[in-house]
């Protein structure tokens, strides 16, 4: 079955599209977040739509946002990223406007696609603010585009491709290398005489997801081991970062921001449990690296900068959190490189990838990143189902 709403070179579903495409515009797709106290519950209703969760339970999560005045940092960060992308494109002489739309709060993806269509654009290239493969970080965005195209009646007017998942693109990896190098130096400054190898640990943290969804992440015809492609990609990137830093410090992949019922298995260990364990092993300092995140949004500001820091302080650990890519010049430049990769049809052999898992697919494979609860729904930029 042809890939829905794809440009002609992507329509038959090649793993990598090596034909040039004259795109009209770029669409930045993100999660969205509230921008005031009155937005918090309506926003959370959008996030949990279809699950029947009452407002009383949503209020239990709302306090994370209320502690920051009801304002999630993510929209401001996306405005900055959009501006940085526009500046980088202009600096390279590339005439591609950037539109921005969210899944759960304004500006919505619906608005972005309608605005692009009203401006006369017909071939769009999407970038999602998520680097890894899983339902919520890739396929759901592809489903969002398909849903919006149908709901707006734009399915007959727009072609929409999506750049590959960029977990191991140099532009995404380099800011983490820089952050770990600076973070380890800070631990040495705050713990004079510390033996980095014996007394510190690096905890690479990412969003936990249901184990069933993790096992379904990535294409079904590849064996990625426990945790599917989602966990494998994180481990591979962490290995690259630590190899390039070269300090010999032990590290592990940990998880955060779990939201499912206690009876449902999610990826572990939780970052707070890991902190308790390493404290019992004689560790004095920990470096927390938000490897799964592109910016300092709520899961970073609350789960790592608030809860994990409180846990570390209770345990007597010195904890340093490294930055996310944000608008780091390497990250912004890397995203523009990904745009040009598709615009120019760059051959697969010439595409940069820091791990053996990449370069990842331009067109997702059949059955990729199924949601264990919802099954398969229509999606762009992938072979059905």
Explain what the structure shows.
By secondary structure, the chain is an alpha/beta fold. The protein folds into two domains: 8-166 and 328-350, Rossmann fold (3-Layer(aba) Sandwich), CATH 3.40.50; 170-321, 3-Layer(aba) Sandwich (Rossmann fold), CATH 3.40.50.1400. 41% of the residues lie in helices and 11% in strands. It is built from twelve helices and eight strands. A four-stranded parallel sheet has the order 2-1-3-4, with helices on both faces. Strands 6-5-7-8 form a four-stranded parallel sheet, sandwiched between helices. The mean pLDDT is 97.
Please outline what is shown here.
The protein is α/β, with parallel strands linked by helices and 385 residues long.
Helix-strand topology string: EHHHEHEHEHHEHHEHEHEH
Structural class: alpha/beta
Oligomer: single chain
As for the number of domains, it is 2
- Point out poorly predicted stretches: none
Q: Just give the CATH class of the largest domain.
A: Alpha Beta
Helix content: 40-55%
N-to-C span: 9 Å
CATH topology of the largest domain: Rossmann fold
**Arrangement of strands in the largest sheet:** 2-1-3-4
Strand content: 5-15%
Number of strands: 8
CA-based gyration radius: 21 Å
CATH architecture of the largest domain: 3-Layer(aba) Sandwich
Characterize the biggest β-sheet. 4 strands, parallel
Estimate the global geometry from the Cα principal axes. Answer: globular
What is the overall number of helices? 12
Mean pLDDT: 97
Break the fold down into its secondary structure elements and pairings.
Elements: E1 25-30, H1 40-47, H2 55-66, H3 74-91, E2 98-102, H4 109-118, E3 123-128, H5 135-152, E4 159-162, H6 170-190, H7 196-199, E5 200-207, H8 211-215, H9 228-245, E6 251-256, H10 271-279, E7 285-289, H11 298-315, E8 318-321, H12 329-343
Parallel strand pairs: 1-2, 1-3, 3-4, 5-6, 5-7, 7-8
Helix pairs in contact: 1-2, 3-12, 4-5, 6-9, 6-12, 10-11
């Amino acid at each position: 079955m042809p890939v829905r709403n794809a440009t002609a070179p992507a329509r038959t579903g090649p793993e990598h599209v090596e034909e040039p495409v004259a795109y009209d515009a770029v669409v930045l797709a993100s999660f969205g977040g509230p921008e005031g106290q009155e937005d918090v519950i309506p926003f959370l209703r959008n996030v949990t739509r279809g699950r029947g969760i009452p407002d009383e339970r949503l209020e239990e999560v709302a306090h994370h946002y209320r502690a920051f005045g009801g304002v999630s940092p993510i929209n401001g960060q996306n405005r900055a990223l959009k501006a940085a992308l526009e500046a980088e494109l202009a600096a390279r002489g590339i005439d591609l406007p950037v539109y921005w739309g969210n899944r759960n709060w304004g500006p919505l993806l619906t608005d972005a696609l309608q605005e692009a269509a009203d401006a006369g654009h017909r071939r769009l290239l999407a970038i999602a603010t998520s680097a890894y493969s899983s339902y919520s970080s890739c396929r759901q965005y592809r489903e969002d585009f398909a849903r919006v195209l149908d709901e707006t009646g734009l399915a007959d007017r727009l072609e929409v491709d999506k750049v590959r998942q960029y977990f191991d693109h140099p532009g995404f990896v380099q800011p983490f290398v820089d952050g770990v190098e600076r973070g380890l130096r800070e631990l040495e400054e705050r713990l004079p005489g510390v033996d980095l190898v014996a007394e510190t640990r690096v905890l690479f943290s990412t969003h936990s997801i249901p184990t069933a969804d993790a096992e379904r992440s990535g294409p079904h015809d590849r064996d990625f081991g426990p945790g599917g492609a989602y966990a494998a990609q994180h481990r591979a990137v962490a290995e690259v970062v630590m190899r390039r830093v070269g300090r010999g410090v032990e590290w592990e992949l940990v998880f955060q921001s779990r939201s499912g019922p206690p009876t449902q298995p999610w990826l572990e260990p939780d970052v707070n449990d890991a902190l308790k364990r390493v404290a019992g092993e004689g560790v004095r300092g920990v470096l927390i690296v938000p490897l799964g995140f592109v910016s300092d949004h709520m899961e970073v500001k609350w789960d790592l900068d608030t809860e994990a820091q409180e846990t570390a302080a209770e345990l007597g650990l010195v904890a340093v959190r490294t930055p996310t890519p944000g608008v780091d010049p390497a990250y912004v430049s890397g995203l523009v490189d990904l745009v040009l990769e598709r615009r120019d049809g760059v051959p697969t052999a010439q595409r940069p990838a820091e791990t053996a898992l990449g370069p990842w697919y331009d067109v997702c494979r059949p059955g990729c990143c199924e949601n264990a609860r919802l099954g398969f729904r229509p999606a762009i930029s992938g072979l059905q189902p």
